[in-house]
Amino acid sequence: MTTATNPRVLDHPARDDIRLEDVLHALSDAVRLLIVSEMAREEAELSCSHFDLPVTKSTTTHHFRVLRESGVIQQIYRGTTKLNALRRDDLDALFPGLLDGVLEAAAAQSRRLGDPRPAAITS
Amino acid sequence: MTTATNPRVLDHPARDDIRLEDVLHALSDAVRLLIVSEMAREEAELSCSHFDLPVTKSTTTHHFRVLRESGVIQQIYRGTTKLNALRRDDLDALFPGLLDGVLEAAAAQSRRLGDPRPAAITS
To answer: What are phi and psi of B85, to 5 degrees?
Structure first.
């Protein structure tokens, strides 16, 4: 666990401290599924402002924090910009196939519901 | 959606009304993962009292209700006994491979943490 004495260094769980329950909780929200699906597609570090989300900036910040604290993403400052990336290696090592399974399920649901986005935003 | 005018008939979402976000939320709890893992192993209708859970009876009832309302399980009265079964056909039709992926991840985590149960009970 990184100690966040420097406000520019954000707390992340070490790989061994990531828990399935926390990962599933992080993924159990339409907006967070949208964020994670976009990250998986882009395969790059993305700023929070990259995402076109139907929520306020403070809610967006909350969603990214839930994803970070559960171990789903890492957030790193580059200068004054916070960049986000999926922790795919960690997740695939701990739970092989889980992330792809959830992303496929999200895509299947979007197709079924006629929503072009990975998960229907209902909130 | 079944109308619950008869208290012995419990509300369940129809297959088309099951949402991935609700399923992931239902599975994002150690006790509920334990219940679902046991159901998957037994492949039978099980009463709530079948499960040896480290929580009170009212908490147990809550967990089963979350599982039912999300579409993960069905609960049916047979006489005065409430029996529980996984909605595997519905889940596999909507989200192929998702349930097995989560159950495998739960088993992997238990092995990793040295817990003999499907998911470590931490609460």
So the answer is: -145, 145
